[in-house]
Amino acid sequence: MSSTLWTRLSAALMLGRRETRLLLLTAGVDSFGTGVYSATSMLFFTQVRHFSFAAVGVGISAGSICALLFSTRLGRLADRYGPRPTLIAVFVARAVGYTLYLLAQPYWAFLVLSCLVTTVDRASSPINQSLMGNLFGQKDRATILGTVFSVRNGAIVLGSLAATVPVMFNSPALYGVCVAVNAGTFLVAAAVLARMPAGTAKAETAPAAAGTTESAAVRSPLRSGPYLLITAVNAVLLLHNTLLTVVLPLWVTEHTEAPRWALTALLALNGVLAMSCQVPVNRRFSSYHAAGRASAFAGVAVLAACVAYAASGAAASALPALVLLVVAMLAHTAGECLHIASTPLSFSLAPPQARGRYLTFYNLGRVGQDLAGPVLLGSALLGSGAPVWWLVGAAVAVAGALPWLLLRGPEPVWDDRVEPGPKEPDRANR
């Protein structure tokens, strides 16, 4: 029975393919380091480097601005040289950058490194998606995107749990070890990815040869109305992430009657549901027009979550507040999963020979949200309560519906015939 179930699961998730296993291992290692670092980085910079909280915030914002300006250039490199070698280079650059955090004593060095590290960080995910686009067809792509997302969620949780040890001991030395562990995971990820034979790609598009202007001749995403639309919608839908990581902790603990333990229980519920539901949701909305519907449903789900969050603040006792928060988290997680399921729009609207550039441009919605979302939402929601919750929910619902309403024409058909560049030797045949 269990053997049959595993066989079916393995087939559904394409675990029999070597490239699937390598991508999942890469995602898991990368995200474990991210979980360790995210839980301890602020403590490292404030207690070991003795920077103020505000100074670290300025550095993070400066990094986000640099990513906004320069991360698409790394997408161009992925189009020119291929996403796999570019992603390996990005992993190595991230390892070097995070290692240098351990040596950067003056504040100006921290600022410079923050700009460099954040830029390659934000380019990593879309270049990884570009690689998946080359390796998998449309239906399989939805599955691998969902599986990678689930693995990333689980690995980040494990990394965060591992970080409880240095946090409990409040050890400056261990905070440094956490930074080093994060840097090391990127080297491991690069080594794992290097084991993927270059010849395994399905050749939806080939990297341009040196001097080829094919990718550069493709229309810029800035001149593509549909792509500008979905990038802006992506930024608005990503408000669900700001709500979860910035607003919810303070809302639950300071603005509701729910017990304080409710916060960790709600976050655990979100993590478990997201990991278990993402793959089937992605498979349900794998096509171009289905992804547009997923975007609309995501907006409605976030609206429902905002209404329930607002109501939880008005509940007079712990039990109704807790019930409303659980309802809100169920809707919130549904919106998160449906938003991820709308990702096929970013593939379908991108010319295959410029996919790296387009996907890094699409990811600018996340960068912009990281830069502006916490400042705008945190003060507004925590300061004004229910009316702003309703307004935010309505704005997300309207934005989510736009791709479904405005992109109802046929899916774009691209001419992806590109002159192949020099072929890398297949490691499997060495």
Polypeptide structure, described:
The chain is mainly α and 430 residues long. It is 78% helix and 0% strand. The longest helix has 31 residues, at 18-48. The chain starts with a helix and ends in a 24-residue tail after the last helix. The chain contains 18 helices and no strands. It has helices at residues 2-12, 18-48, 53-81, 83-101, 107-135, 138-162, 164-169, 172-194, 214-217, 225-237, 239-255, 261-284, 288-314, 318-341, 344-348, 355-362, 364-384, 386-406. It folds into two domains: 19-204, Growth Hormone, Chain: A, CATH 1.20.1250; 221-413, MFS general substrate transporter like domains (Growth Hormone, Chain: A, Up-down Bundle), CATH 1.20.1250.20. It is globular.
Provide keyphrases for this structure.
78% helix, Growth Hormone, Chain: A, disordered C terminus
Helix and strand topology:
Blueprint: H1 2-12, H2 18-48, H3 53-81, H4 83-101, H5 107-135, H6 138-162, H7 164-169, H8 172-194, H9 214-217, H10 225-237, H11 239-255, H12 261-284, H13 288-314, H14 318-341, H15 344-348, H16 355-362, H17 364-384, H18 386-406
Helix pairs in contact: 2-6, 2-8, 3-4, 3-5, 3-16, 3-17, 4-5, 4-8, 5-6, 5-16, 6-12, 10-17, 10-18, 11-17, 12-14, 13-14, 13-18
Helix-residue proportion:
over 70%
Mean pLDDT: 86
Q: Name the overall outline.
A: globular
Count of runs of 4 or more consecutive helical residues:
18
CATH topology (fold) name of the largest domain = Growth Hormone, Chain: A
Listing every helix as H and every strand as E from the N terminus to the C terminus, the arrangement reads HHHHHHHHHHHHHHHHHH
CATH H-level superfamily of the largest domain: MFS general substrate transporter like domains
| CATH class descriptor name of the largest domain | Mainly Alpha
**What's the total number of strands?**
0
Straight-line N-to-C gap: 40 Å
Q: Mind telling me the C-alpha Rg? A: 22 Å
Task: Tell me the domain tally.
Answer: 2
